[in-house]
């Protein structure tokens, strides 16, 4: 049964209550690429036929040492019967040299042949057991992670920004119902969960109840609203950042529990308008928003020697400060003096080494 069939068969089952081995087609933990069972079996079968051919060749070279005059087909038949330990006894070695060859060469090959066949089954079972143990360990230990729902253009950009900001790849979980998209995410070292994020059970196996933040970036606004409602119900304390295409849907996401809403169409539209008048401004905005080399907007705590100072006079270019969870722009009265516990939003220089 394929991963898709396996996952689809569980459509009406509580995913979070399933045993770990039943989640192999849903949760994927990045690691060394493993061969599929069919390719593994196919390779072992080729090795087995190679051993059969080698033994048949050895027997045919010494064909006079057996109970009858052998053709190559007879030698191959003896090889198959002998290596598979069937042993019909219709062809037997009769000379001392033929028996010595069977003892010294064919018997070790027979043992290797059996190990090869048994090892194929063990390898497939061991690989599934390893993945099950890996998933069990991950589900037990994962916490304070970031879940990104939807790995389209917006989701990939969000992940790039998280990675550039120092978030470890193993602390990012991607939820999507497109297997090809999830394979791309797994190649980046990200944990992936296959399923529809509007379902509470899919969110639960992604560890949403212990997540620090959830980025909701589906392609449809109605999906974003449904996912936000589900996440907020299951994880009341998680930070929810959602994206919508149209500004008229912003209030729906805010009412559903989103802490922050990004309007993708209006942001793109403003950049398009600026590009027709002042292209360098758009280039600078792209630079600030991109995780590549250049500048980026970052946040940091205030240093002890900065307390009491005017943020405009600090070494960094400060855009605003965060105090008790509230953001104040640099030109607001609250931003006249830096207080203990404040956090500064500033422009940081990003180098190629930092990105790596």
TrEMBL record:
Statement: the UniProt record of this protein carries the keyword Membrane: yes
- Asked if the keyword Transmembrane belongs to this entry, the reply reads yes
Please provide the Gene Ontology terms (biological process) for this protein. potassium ion transport
Q: How does it sit in the membrane?
A: Multi-pass membrane protein
Q: List where in the cell it is found.
A: Cell membrane
Q: Entry's InterPro entries?
A: K_chnl_dom, NAD(P)-bd_dom_sf, RCK_N, Trk_Ktr_HKT_K-transport
Which keywords has UniProt assigned to this entry? Membrane, Transmembrane, Transmembrane helix
Report domain RCK N-terminal positions.
Answer: 143-263
User: This protein is called what?
Assistant: Ion channel protein
């Amino acid at each position: 049964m394929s991963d898709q069939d396996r996952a689809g068969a569980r459509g009406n089952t509580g995913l979070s209550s399933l045993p770990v081995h039943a989640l192999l087609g849903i949760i994927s933990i990045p690691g060394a690429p493993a061969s599929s069972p069919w390719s593994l079996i196919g390779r072992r079968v080729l090795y087995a036929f190679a051993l059969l051919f080698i033994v048949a060749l050895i027997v045919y070279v010494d064909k006079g040492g057996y109970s009858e005059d052998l053709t190559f087909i007879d030698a191959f038949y003896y090889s198959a019967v002998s290596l598979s330990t069937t042993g019909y006894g219709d062809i037997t070695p009769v000379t001392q040299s033929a028996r010595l060859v069977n003892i010294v060469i064919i018997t070790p090959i027979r043992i290797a042949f059996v190990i090869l066949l048994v090892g194929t089954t063990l390898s497939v079972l061991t690989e599934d057991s390893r993945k099950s143990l890996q998933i069990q360990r991950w589900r037990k230990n994962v916490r304070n992670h970031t879940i990104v729902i939807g790995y389209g253009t917006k989701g990939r950009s969000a992940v790039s920004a998280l990675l550039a900001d120092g978030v470890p790849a193993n602390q990012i979980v991607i939820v999507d119902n497109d297997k090809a998209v999830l394979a791309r995410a797994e190649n980046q070292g990200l944990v992936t969960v296959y399923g529809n994020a509007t379902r509470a059970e899919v969110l639960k196996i992604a560890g949403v109840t212990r997540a620090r933040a959830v980025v909701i970036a589906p392609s449809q606004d109605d999906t974003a609203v449904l996912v936000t409602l589900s996440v907020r119900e299951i994880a009341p304390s998680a930070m929810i950042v959602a994206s919508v295409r149209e500004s008229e849907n912003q209030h729906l996401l805010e009412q559903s529990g989103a802490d922050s809403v990004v309007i993708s169409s209006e942001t793109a539209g403003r950049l398009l308008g600026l590009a027709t008048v002042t292209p360098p401004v758009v280039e600078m905005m792209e630079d600030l928003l991109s995780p590549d080399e250049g500048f980026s907007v970052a946040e940091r705590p205030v240093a002890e020697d900065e307390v009491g100072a005017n943020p405009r006079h600090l070494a960094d270019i400060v855009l605003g400060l965060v105090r008790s969870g509230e953001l104040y722009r640099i030109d607001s009265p609250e931003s006249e003096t830096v207080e203990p516990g404040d956090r500064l939003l500033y422009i940081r220089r990003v180098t190629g080494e930092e990105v790596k």
